[in-house]
Design goal:
Number of strands of chain B: 11
Number of helices of chain B: 12
Structural class of chain B: alpha/beta
Helix content of chain A: 25-40%
Radius of gyration of chain A: 32 Å
Helix content of chain B: 25-40%
Largest interface: A-B, 58 and 42 residues
Oligomer: heterodimer
Shape of chain B: globular
Order of helices and strands of chain B: EHHEHEHEHHEEHEHHHEHEHEE
Strand order of the largest sheet of chain B: 3-2-1-4-5-10-9-6-7-8
Shape of chain A: elongated
Chain lengths: ~1000, ~300
Amino acid sequence: MRGGVPMRDFDAVIFDMDGVVTQTARLHAAAWKDLFDHFLRARVADGHTPFPPFDAKEDYLAFVDGRPRHEGVRRFLAARGVQLPEGSPKDEPGAMSVHGLGAQKDGLFTSRMRRNGVAVFASTLALIRRLRERGVKTAVVTSSRNGREVLRIADVETLFDVRVDGIDTDALALEGKPHPAPFLRAAELLGVAPGRAIVIEDAISGVEAGRSGGFGLVVGVDRHGNRDALLAHGADVVVPDLGELDLETLDRHMRERREALLAWHVEQEGFDPAREHGMESIFTVGNGYLGVRGALDTPLPGSQADLFVAGVYDRKSAGRPYSEIEFIGDDRGDSVHSELVSVPFPFRVRLAVDGVPLSPAGTRCRMHRRTLDLQQGILHGYADYDTDTDRRVVVRTRRCASLSDLHLLLQEVTVTLVNHSSEVELDASLEDPDLKSNHPHLTRLDVAGADATLDVHRFTTQASRIEIVVASRTTLGGSDRGGVRWKVQEAIGRTLTFRRQVAVYTSADVADPLAVAMRRIQEMSWEDFDGEVAAHAARWKQVWKRADVRIPGSTATEQALRFNAYHLTSAADRDPRVSVGARALTGRAYEGHVFWDVELFKFPFYLYTFPDVARTLLLYRFNTLGGARRRAHALGFRGACYAWESTATGDDVTPRMIRLKSSGKEIPIFTGTQQVHVTAGVAHAIWRYWEATRDREFMRDAGVEILAETARFWASRCTLDAGLFHIRKVIGPDEYHHAVNDNAYTNWLARFNLERAAEAVEWMKRELASEWGAFAERIALSPGEPDGWTNTARALYCPAPNADGVIEQFEGFFDLEDYPLPREERFKAPISRLFDWERINRMKLIKQADVLMLLHLFPGAFPHDVMAANYHYYEPMTDHASSLSPGIHSAIAARIGLREEAERYWRESLWLDLSDRMGNNALGVHPACMGATWQALVFGFLGVHFEDSGPVRASWAASALPSKWKEVALTVNWRGRECVIHREREEPA
Amino acid sequence: MSLFPSILVPLDGSSGAARSLGCATWLASRLGARLHVLSATPRELPAREELERLHVPREHWSRVELHQASTYPEDAILDAISRYDCRLVVMTSRGAAAEARGAPSSGIAKVVGHVTQAVIERCAVPVLLLPPRYREVLPWERLLVPVSGGAESDEALVLAVHLADALGLEVHVAHVSDPDSKDEEFAVRTRYSDQLHHEYRAQLEELVSRALPALATAECCRVQAIQLGHGDIAGELVNIMSRDRVSVLVVGWHGIFVTGRAQVLRTLIPLLEAPVLLTKCVRPTRFQLKVGEDLE
């Protein structure tokens, strides 16, 4: 009972027949034995080598149980090394073919059955009757063509609303178990969604079918001592007999299973055009190299149906349809790599039935559902249509960006004609009818000579001159011929299946992307699709071994954390030429630029989950060191200063102004020249990486050089005044205040950078003495320079806590005017913040954690009371206009024992994208916020810090856990070891 | 909760319109529903006088709530549906104005008057339409639902089963294949020609079971007969209704008299003596992203 209303978690139960309802296994086994033994003896008589006879237990279970009979014949004979021609279903019994033997077995079985009758399992019948009394629909599914006769002889026909037997599956050309088609057919006839139905099976192939069909619960019946095998192949529950089950236990199992499923799926039901762009972001599939927004398979005219390729940028120009919601930034200087390029949608299909186009956005769609399977990285679509002439059509789709082949995209579309026969049209062309407007960076190139059965598109970016090839191969089930446009007359009840494999290559990857993409696609067949999907899912399985966070009993929290880990994983390539943009490859916001949030917000997740990704991200900074040097030089300093916004080369692509869409007003942007703390952020990440991995090779080849060049920058950026160094005219993490002096965060990070650089070169000099000379010469490091960094660090002014324990955010902050911050302006700052920038610069109003960010990065450096004093001082004046802010506030609040505040900020951060709390997920998800959420959990609620021996939890962590959590468990990687962090809840004493 | 907690009967003073009262009061009594009588009149009269003018039999006076409105009849009816939360409208196909003009020989007006047409097209709740040749036969015994597998007919079947369960009636289901549609013939020929265990009935059982996923087994048992017909749809339905002594025809339909299966209804309604319960498929545009703490 929930809320006083009795509710059931399932509507139907689908039973396998043999072994579950009826006891025909012995009859079948005896018939098989008669058949095969006679056949094998006859072969010996013909001079063949003798074979072991058919084993009615072992061979029965291994080769024939639960399978269509011709499949059973084929498998058993193959196991004995015998090959027969397939023959045809019309073959007479006894014909020397697979089908002939199958027909003979059928006759042997039928005569035995008629002679001996059919026994039933009384406990199963009792369960079925109880279910039906309570209004549960029942169906029986069997591969046997004798199914109905078996049921009739057993006198149990009337116990089932629906019966699907071998005759049905043959008539509809459905594949047999372990394919889920027979069970799905039963569910369809029952009128229930598979997720609301239970499958009960005793065969391995049957539980596999139930599992892959997406049924709500799969119950295995262990009559043969194969409990472990049933569980391993997909059974949720295994019982020795159905006498152990009743409606209540099934309901409980179903509910537990459903909650587990919910935690692994993000599902949208219904259609709301106003939220479609947001859904496109959320349902993006990606593998770090490719990101494809989750647009409908038939995108709406207004969809942002984009494919992004990591590292492929082009020149920005005014008027292109790239922008933030409220403003556009049409100035990006002269860089030819200033904007992430949108490539035409690679999953586009146009479907029509009897000439009527189908679209979930139309009025004739009964049901539309999009489900992201986080566990396997697959996006599923489901749409149930009625046309104006009552033609009902069900369209199921699935798609993924392969994690095992980063250049490969996979898509499957099935079309079922439910109550009519019709002509189905599928147009799989990837041609974008409005290329110029939707993909303005691209110029189409000729693909003369391409295979006509493929759909090949070749483009070049206009300024950066990167060639991009998208080659698509679509095949209709039953034919191995590729095609682009299909017209098929199909019968009622039948399902058409289309599969598409798409290869994407660019000239940044290979010399001849056209040839490579074509070759990759041509070498794939229809059957390869399953293998590619399986390989992809296997990679995701490996991901979750490291990245999963378990919070038993908190379904929604687990779901959201997995959603975050899914996107962080999908965002990360292993290519050191690219990094993760502010919205990764899920949307157009920030034009795919790389910011400080990579190292400060996303990096810890990668570092402690996938250290190889963390290394790659740092190598991106090494590969763009040239751009950072150029920027330092342009600003009048030495060394390397990383761009506030960078892309392929590391050169700065930060806009100098933005223009409000509403008024056309231009707002100057100072971050490009003043927000230099990103440089120290890179150094901070390098040091954390070194601590966590002791990766000497990385430090030798890249890390020390970055530390040295960035230290050089700080040494030249600091100005000496009255014996102390100062850093003037900067912007800290709080972007509401520009041209400030001695921003606490910046100065602390710069000092850390200087100190670690000196330490790193000393380490290299000591540990890699033979390479030191060449290194010092290459970067022109003078002998006294590291000492200069140390001296600068010692004399660098870093604001200390005042008498109240508060650290001044920057010089003069305490003297600014108070700003009474209304509650409604928090988390969703008004647009006036932008055009009121001069007034806001004079106010005590901050955008995001600034001093608190400093405390978060160096928790050991500040006592509890200082941390608390700063939280209480700055928190009320922060409007959290950045998605980066709530997670850090949550972490600090947890550390200082403000559990309710910590939970409040945690929720803001955790569900920022799924609940669209900032109202801007239409332009992409917020991976840095996801990283901040992870940090709030690990460093806030769990209070983890690292010592040489590994991660250490804070003693207070058990009482800081959110109120609804009973326990939490996750894995972190420390110096090559997987360390499990597990904490159970304890109430404070 | 009653299936139809409130029933609206629009009357216009004509004797024809008043014929709907017998059926409506019977339904209200059996379903425990409140009966609202609406009179669209330019001049409001005392209740007693108005009830007499509307030909409401005196024995029903205590059972009805009378409302008088001075706007256009169709607007008044639609407003009353909303205002009194009526879940069913019972009305004759043609009212006083149509009677005054005499029976037209062709067009929609031959089937329904303009007020009835407007109500059917514009309201979302079911309308029990009494055809021109309506003969009152109470109590009802069985309902007939033509099914096609489409959403509207599915919803009509669900409504019919609910109503039958509430009133203790049988439901008969019919699927009439149109000889002009190669589709249906194709379906029959390809699926059922050579399979021992399948008959036409099985196809209809599938259509019915698919339409009733949310109903309890006991309710589904109200479906007592499932049959397949061929030929002219309207004629075949009239034959079945006559043969099976059907009390009410339940039709799922979009409500517009010019598209889709409208022609069948336009042919059918003048031929019927039993009422037709017209129901629309109302699909709320629901959107849900299944995330957040509500999951817990």
